[in-house]
């Protein structure tokens, strides 16, 4: 049997890529509209996320609680994704990376902006594609100390 390239641009894989990009957009929209429960629903039930080095939030209920606490610190946010790259590992698993620019207005009116990447692992379940694991890697930030964030690795010059 010939090897199958899971990453060919077949109609099925184009649909899968579009579905993953749609869930990514839902994640950011829910953050911006302060909908933490719906934002957590973009994760698998046992999904996990790391916004800080070595610190993982695991399970959809814990994710919703952490997002609720985090989002409550802001008057407004605006998250923008781009440069989405998806690589499939079989029919129901994928990895993806996307760039993120996330603007935040704190309750005191001060603002900060994050520049970075989401590094994800995805699974397909009965309900479609969900985030199994997400790690935020920061290239930098303005308006806040970015030393507490996971640094985006960069090859030496």
Provide structural commentary.
25% of the residues lie in helices and 46% in strands. The protein has a 6-stranded mixed β-sheet, with helices on one face. The protein is globular and about 55 Å long. With 157 residues, the chain is of the alpha+beta class. The model has no long low-confidence stretch (mean pLDDT 94). The chain contains 3 helices and 6 strands, in the order ααββαββββ. It has one domain (11-142): Nuclear Transport Factor 2, Chain: A, CATH 3.10.450.50. The protein has helices spanning 11-32, 36-40, 60-71, and strands spanning 43-52, 55-58, 74-88, 93-106, 111-125, 128-142. β3 (74-88) and β4 form a beta hairpin.
Summary tags:
single chain, 157 residues, alpha+beta, Nuclear Transport Factor 2, Chain: A, six-stranded mixed sheet, 6 strands, 25% helix
Question: How would you sum up this structure in a few lines?
Answer:
This protein has 157 residues and is α+β, with helices and mostly antiparallel strands. It is built from 3 helices and 6 strands; from the N terminus they run H-H-E-E-H-E-E-E-E.
The CATH topology assignment is Nuclear Transport Factor 2, Chain: A
Question: Total helix count?
Answer: 3
Helix content: 10-25%
Q: In CATH terms, what is the architecture?
A: Roll
